[in-house]
Amino acid sequence: MPTKYQAAEELLENKIILITGAGDGIGAEAARTFARFGATCILLGKTVSKLEKVYDDIVEAGGQQPAIIPLDLKGATAKNYQDMAQTIIDQFGKLDGVLHNASMLGHLSAFSDIPETEWMDVMQINVNSAALMTQALIPALRKAQHASVVFTSSGVGKKGRAFWGTYAVSKFATEGMMQVLASEFENRGLRFNCINPGATRTKMRASAYPAEDPMTLKTPADLMPVYLYLMGDDSLNVNGQSIDCQPK
Ligand SMILES: NC(=O)c1ccc[n+]([C@@H]2O[C@H](COP(=O)([O-])OP(=O)(O)OC[C@H]3O[C@@H](n4cnc5c(N)ncnc54)[C@H](OP(=O)(O)O)[C@@H]3O)[C@@H](O)[C@H]2O)c1
């Protein structure tokens, strides 16, 4: 049961793991957690001050010194990702894991009212960037013995819901991208899976449910057993799965 998984202290030792959206919410907690279990984290995100705070947390806790990649996924191009991948190979020689976590919610509204710009931005940040980044990172991932790529899905990426328009469509696309990659790389030393965090106490959740009492929700820390399970070698045979952190 991945939700009850207990990771060995050295689970992620010698692993290099890239986390997108590492400055806040679930991504920040994942970065701190991966570092606590021995990983060297590459913190990618939009707001440098937030990334620096996570960097300091990791160093203060005695973790491996992280790297920071300030990047706004909205404007990033394939060339940006290729340059980033080359820098990772030059600096670390390989990449053992990617957590595609950064996402934009957009506004909840009737489908007919979704502005074109918002549709484009949400798809760019949630889907296109993860696709182009994954393409660019495959050579670095193939240099690791057993690399794990984890995409972040959502309940509305498995069953559509009124007013969740672009975000829901982007999460269906994420599930689809994961399945295509998992099938393509089966038995080739690279695995691809999705995590659905479920309702979690973060800024994104608060913006979707402003009237909700956040204290009733799981925290990002509560979800970490599943993140550790998929990132470490205990999940070597798990490929093409979508795992719920809070199964009903
Ligand atoms: N929280 C939930 O209840 C819940 C439920 C289901 C799925 N999820 C999924 O879980 C993941 C994490 O969500 P969260 O709740 O932790 O959200 P969050 O607290 O809003 O954090 C999102 C992160 O993504 C980054 N990001 C957003 N736009 C970006 C861009 N253009 N370029 C680079 N980074 C960008 C943000 O950076 P800045 O802070 O610098 O803007 C932030 O670090 C998302 O994929 C979300 O869809 C969350």
From TrEMBL:
One of its GO terms (molecular function) is oxidoreductase activity. It holds the Pfam family adh_short. This is YciK family oxidoreductase. InterPro entries: NAD(P)-bd_dom_sf, Sc_DH/Rdtase_CS, SDR_fam. Belongs to the short-chain dehydrogenases/reductases (SDR) family. The keyword DNA damage does not apply. Keywords: Oxidoreductase.
